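Materials and Methods. Structural model of 3-oxo-tetronate 4-phosphate decarboxylase. The 210-residue sequence of 3-oxo-tetronate 4-phosphate decarboxylase from Chania multitudinisentens RB-25 was retrieved and submitted for structure prediction as follows.
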Amino acid sequence: MTNTVEQQAREEMVRLGASFFQRGYATGSAGNLSLLLPDGALLATPTGSCLGELQADRLSKVSLDGAWISGDKPSKEISFHRALYQHNPACKAVVHLHCTYLTALSCLQGLDTENAIKPFTPYVVMRVGNVPVVRYYRPGDLRLAEDLARLAPAHKAFLLANHGPVVTGENLREAANNTEEMEDAAKLIFTLGNRPIRYLTDDEIAELRS
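The predicted structure was written out as tokens:
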């Protein structure tokens, strides 16, 4: 890996973090981002960092085994990021936010744990497919990583109960786009409220997935 490639990855993480923060997808020091570098290490946002104030040279660099290589101390939630990379080779980046509508959705009782966003527009289906719900654990609990590891081979996105979304992608931009599409769908769910919704049929969903 060249220094140029890693530097570009650092700058992209800073830009996307700032964009999330400026548009209200992240507040305070909530949420974390990571991506897989060509050398097999992870680049991640440090513990307690504000996504709107990231510094490229202070981002955490961590091995897939969890060893802290350089930069500021990584978030305690890096364990579940590592689990996703280790159990899904297609995962090259992870976005975890506490964005308003997906976090609100994660707090509702009675969600379908196999798919929290029942398809009513094509876009979440095309981007990430089903969004399973992971049971509640306190932030940093290693059982969260264990549950995500189990689900990772078959899924691109997850809703952590009472916590918020975890979304993957083939790169950080794709993971960000996937997250924003899911947040928009969650906003539509609350906007529609109790009005009758025309959900997509099984045939329509199958066509999108094909």
